[in-house]
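C-ALPHA CELLS:
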Amino acid sequence: MTPIQLICIDVDGTLTDGGIEYDSAGVEHKRFNAADGLGIVMAMAAGIKIAIISGRKSEIVDRRMRELGVTEVVQGAGDKGEKMRKVKEAYGLPTEAVAFIGDDINDLPAFDEAGLRIAVADAAEIVLKRSDFVTARDGGHGAVREAIEKILRRQGIYDQAVQAYLEKTKADPGRPSQ
C-alpha cells in the first residue's frame, strides 16, 4: 500500500454543506466546519500535503485556506482532473499517493487522478458508487476530518499526527488551528 502524500479536497458540498448564501449587498457567505479545519492542519503537521480544487471562485475560500496554512488552492477549475494532474506533477507524486475527497459529478474527473477516492455521505449516487470509501458524515459536517483521520490511521501515523499538531499549535499559539 502506497502511503497517501497528498489529499485534494473539493469545497462546496465537501468542506461546506453546499449552501451558497448571499446577503442583501450581494456578499457571498459559506460555513466551514472547525473540525474539518483541524483535520487539515493535523494532516499537514504530519507531512501530508493538502490541495483545494474547487469549481467555483470565492474569496472566502482563499481566506479560510490562508487561516489554515493551505497554500495549494485551485479555484475556478473547469476540469478538476486536469488541475489535479498538474498538482500531482508539481509534487512529483504518482496517482497511488493521492487522495481526493468530493461530492458531486464535477469531481469524477479528479477521482480518475486519485489512488484513493473518498465521497462524503451525502454525495451524488454516481460519486458514491465510484468511491473507495464513503464517510459517515455529510459534507460540511466533519466529513473531511473523518476522511483525514481514516487516512492517518490506515497509514499508522494518527498518534504521530496528533502529537505533531499539538507541538505546532504550542509553537505558534496565535495562529488559527482549526
Summary: Strands lie at 6-9, 21-22, 28-29, 49-53, 72-74, 98-102, 116-119, 133-134. The domain at 6-169 is CATH 3.40.50.1000 (Rossmann fold).
